[in-house]
Amino acid sequence: MSASEKWSSQPDLFSYPKSRWNNPDTSRAAAESISLEAITETQERILVVYRFHGALSDEQLEEFFLDYWPDSATSQGIRSRRGELVRKGLVVDTGERSTTKYGRSCVVWRSASIPTQTGETK
Fold first, then answer.
1. 8 Cβ partners below 8 Å, 6+ apart?
2. Distance, CA of 66 to CA of 75 (rounded, Å)
3. Which helix (H) or strand (E) holds 80?
4. Which of 17, 77, 82, 102 has the fewest other C-beta atoms within 10 Å?
């Protein structure tokens, strides 16, 4: 068996939905229920916040999100859904950094530019 055949027969560890290792049954089921093509209501709301307010840190995103939709998601849930949007290419790192309320550096994110039918970007 050649080296390339050996590597090609290895399992793909990165295509599977992420789940917690210490609670595999429920976490795996939840991860598998997330479609890479579908946008959840929470993800859609996150995109609305970015499109209305522009580039934001996670703390800023959480604050605006919870102002509009109180008790609809947790801070961790909002950050997780933002991460999913990053993996889908719908939210991108601006390259800018901000500071958290604890004085730590953090990424500033924004909604990705979306081409219109005329070729312009929004």
1. none
2. 9
3. helix 75-87
4. 102
pTM of the predicted structure, to 2 decimals: 0.65
The topology (CATH level 3) of 26-111 is Arc Repressor Mutant, subunit A (1.10.10)
Distance CA 82, CA 74 (A): 12
Tell me the C-alpha distance between 45 and 65, whole Å: 7
Per-residue pLDDT tens, the chain, 122 aa: give them.
Answer: 555 554 555 444 444 455 555 666 766 666 555 555 589 999 999 999 999 999 999 999 999 999 999 999 999 999 999 999 999 999 999 999 999 999 999 999 999 975 545 555 55
* All structural domains of the chain with their residue ranges: 26-111
